[in-house]
Amino acid sequence: MSEGSPARIGEQDRPRWSAADLLTAIRLPLAVAFPLASGPELRFAILLAAAGSDLLDGTVARRYGASRLGAVLDPIADKLFMASAFGVVAFSGQLAWWEVAAALIRDIVATIAFAVTAIRGRPSAIPARPGGKAVTIGQVLTLVAFLLESSLLRPLAWATAGAGLYAIWDYTRVSSRERRALGS
Questions:
Q1: N or C: lower Cβ tally within 10 Å for the chain?
Q2: What domains are defined for the chain?
């Protein structure tokens, strides 16, 4: 491994911003645009852009290096976009509020857990795990089903909730050994 590779760079040497952060930051205006969009076609394009930026930002961070800001910005952008998009689903009446909350259970619990660690003065993050990735995929597929007015909307929402419960269990199981200080 070379001296300048991302894995060897000390925390103080990490840049404030990176290319991955720009991809992540794209989700912030998309979170505002989704509920304001005039129809399902535009919302579908916004969803694709958000999902694409989420997929690419991690790849770019691993390849070209991550910043301290990325560890904070990425989960915030993810949760804001999903909350915004699922807010549209909730207001549509196609899912009950508790079904929307179930589809977002992993995000709700993760936000509360982060707030608790931040209040305690030890904000930390756990690296992405397969269960969390499955939840994100489920959330995107649920939103696609909503936009397409598919009969799969409710089953996908509940499958996402199930994946969310698994992800919560999995994160809890590994949290003591995989927790890292925020931004590291």
A1: N
A2: 14-181 (1.20.120)
